[in-house]
Amino acid sequence: MAWRRVAVCAATVMMCVICYGDRAALSVALPDIVRDFGLSPSQAGWVLSSFLWSYFFLNLPSSILLDRLGPRLVGILAVAVWSAAMVQGSLAITLPAFLLSRMVLGAGEAPTFALGAKVMRLWSSPQQRGLMMTLFTSGISIGLAAGAIVSGYMVAHHGWRMAFCILASVGFLWCLLWYFLYPSQTKNLSISHVRTRFSIRPFFSSRSFWGVVIAQCCVNYANFLMMSWLPIILKQRMNLSVFDASIYTACCYTGAVVISLIAGRVGESLHSTHAHIPTGRKRIVALYLSMVGILGILPFIQSVPLSMVCLILSMGFVTAGSGANMALLADLLVEQDALGAANGLVLTFSNGTGILAPVITGYILQFTGNFEYVFYMVATLVLTGAGVVLALPRVPIKLQAVANG
After folding, report:
1. CA-to-CA distance for 165 and 162, rounded, in angstroms?
2. pTM of the complete model beyond 0.85
3. Using one digit for the tens of pLDDT, what is the confidence trace for 364-379?
4. Beta partners for 333?
5. Whether the Cβ atoms of residue 219 and residue 385 lie closer than 8 Å to each other
6. Can you list the alpha helix ranges (DSSP code H) found in 159-303?
7. 2-185+194-391: which CATH topology?
8. What is the pLDDT of residues 73-122, one digit of tens each?
9. Cβ(78)–Cβ(178) below 8 Å
10. CA–CA separation, 399 vs 214, rounded Å?
11. 401: which DSSP letter?
12. Could you count the other beta carbons within 10 Å of the beta carbon of residue 59?
């Protein structure tokens, strides 16, 4: 059983790696895609956000489906759909066809984060929950780093269409692994067999829930900004080629993984004395979000090494902050069998904010020609999120439990 626990958690992190590796391919290939389809900066922003259109609307329905069908089936379906969408995108000749492929990709990726949160909750102890969620969210940075390297090389030598196909094949292999690895029936000693009837009203009436939501919206804006525009930010600030920008992007995300894991471990140590308090983790979340605010000083940094340090630190705390915040949600939620739906509801709001990040950035870049005001805006948002998560969560989130016959 111990080996399966480790293997399932590792495969779940790998799912996150593949998911974000596929997203990185679009950012790295964007200059070539812009050239092929003749796009302006604002149009490029809409292309970068296109997968979020379906992702946003399907977060909650797919998370409710996750609670009904379980991680095994939903994991296979999700990864298979988004991998097929990568292949579809590589074959697209017109812009509408390419946008359609991104929307299908968003549909496939919709349950991913809720699935990861549920699996980590099922297969880890309460004492490890924050660290395991940070490990899962570190898959974001690992995937973006690996995706940047692979797609950067493939785009430079074989074109962006081949890069999409190579990354899609990894997803199909993961589906095969998950089919044989994840048990069809999961025994969980920590979650009651009483099934909760899902209702939005108890969430909306909870101050604690809104504290988690607002914090996740703020940190997710920063996350989607970096995920969409980082190669272009580096290319502009450092005058790099596409391949060199992908190398620097990978370095940023690799460094962010290290920072996020260290932050997650330190955060769990700090939280250990308050682990019995459902709201105890909110101070860790606020600290991490405050650290993301160092992006606001980036426009004043001229040194390339210092710019890289600033980006790496902020990106690492984006990952750590997101993981700690979702662990806070798990701590606050009394009816744990509704955790998938609760995650989906939080992600519906936060991804609605995430949709705006690439689009707003594209318009700011088109009108100003640089990213200075983008960084000021992000710093203001995450500092606001830190204050809100400190102020609002005070009591657990209680739903109405209904016994299952």
Report:
1. 5
2. no
3. 888 888 888 999 999 9
4. 397
5. yes
6. 160-181, 201-204, 207-238, 242-271, 282-292
7. Growth Hormone; Chain: A; (1.20.1250)
8. 999 999 999 999 999 988 988 888 999 999 999 999 988 888 887 888 78
9. no
10. 20
11. B
12. 28
